[in-house]
Amino acid sequence: MRHIDLGAARENMVTTGMTGATRRGRAGLTACLAGSILLAGCSFAPPHVRPAQPVPSSYSGETAAGPSVARIGWHDFFREDHLRALIMAALENNRDVRIATARVAEARAAWRIEGAALYPELNGVGTGTRGRSIINLPGLGTQSYDIKQITAQLSASWELDFWGRLRNLRDAARNQYLATEEARRAVATDLIAQVANGYLLERDYEERVAIARRTIATREESLRIMRRRYEVGSGSKLEMTQAQMLLAQAQSTLQGLDQDREINRNALALLVGGPVEIPPGPLGLAEAAPQVDLPPGLPSELLSYRPDVVAAEYRLRAADANIGAARAAFFPNITLTGAFGTASADLDGLFGDGSRSWSFTPTITQPLFNAGRLAANLDVAKARQVEAVADYEKTIQSAFRDVSDALVRRRQLALQIETTRTVLEALRERARLAQLRFDNGRSAYLEVLDAQRDLFDTEQALVQLRRAHLAAAIALYAALGGGFVGQPAFDTGASAIPASGEQQR
To answer: What are the E-state strand segments in 307-351?
Structure first.
């Protein structure tokens, strides 16, 4: 499709009209027809130019060690079978996904509606007319005539899209449809990340609950010993009370964990779209590796893999096409209308000899005065194109920030995990020594109380840090646009989601 300048097109049209009016012959008619055929392939839409990437060429502190991890599909990225089953159930049952799928179907139907305007419209028309007409004739007076007519016709109409208005409207609808498909893929990618994070939280609570129960069992034994020491007079009531307080703190932590665990399961049930049962699984966060190779690639890869960025570019293409349609509205609208059928005064003679009827009505409409409506419509299209450019650039910047934040969190959480491991080993030794000192009468039980409390809190914190580190990996994967690369997202009755960037290449 060729792109031509609006002013030049107007000049060519005026020149062609003057030439045809001057020659008044076959040569002029041939020139006009040839010009119309050439203009039929024209478009006033500006050529699409991808805006410059408003972010650095690489992520801070990262080198392009390989292709982005976003090229891995979610089924290969998540290896745990229970998690895969949850994700699959969510993609099939989640209501947000169903809403996004319905919007895709709606956008696809709108595209078909706009595309249908490029083709002739054919209708079967039947009419019946009965009435009386009064005519005043000089010398004859007033005469009345009964009118009765029945017609059966095939009626056709076709707008010749010389200036590309209809094609641009169709292209705008197509790009909006593709943007909606990418939006559905973004919903699915976000859903996968939420389900995976909920699953990690479940494993987090599972391990922290186990630590809390072990701690409670140990402290119950300590309380039994302290109570017995008090009863035989070798210990004080203060020490027994401190042991009770230490046990109560662990029990309170367990109760809070049980509450948060149930809330997390309710959130998972909402995401999955049904009841969730997660049996104890092999994904132990305590054994999770602190470092996982997740190359982010280059920021330029976000343009092809991140669904919201791809959707923003499709919306920009749609805005370009709408400018072409608004420009084409300034030029003549040519419509061909015709009908062929039969007409008769009586139903019996409708298909008899001599009842054939036909009509052919070419119509050309040139806007002359509309109080600036067409110019304002063009201004609206241009303003929306500027808005689409800004939205595209902002989406890229937001994507870059999401990836950068996830990279920072992974680096810093890995360091915190190592530091916390060192602290935890020191606290275990401190708790052991404090207990020995107390058993040998060299310190008060308060020292044991502080050591065991700090040890328990650090054990809980280490589990949370490991879960946060794995969650940062999931956030990085989602921020890079991973999930449905090179494969359909899911089949829920609508067309399959294309691979990210596939429509552009």
So the answer is: 333-344
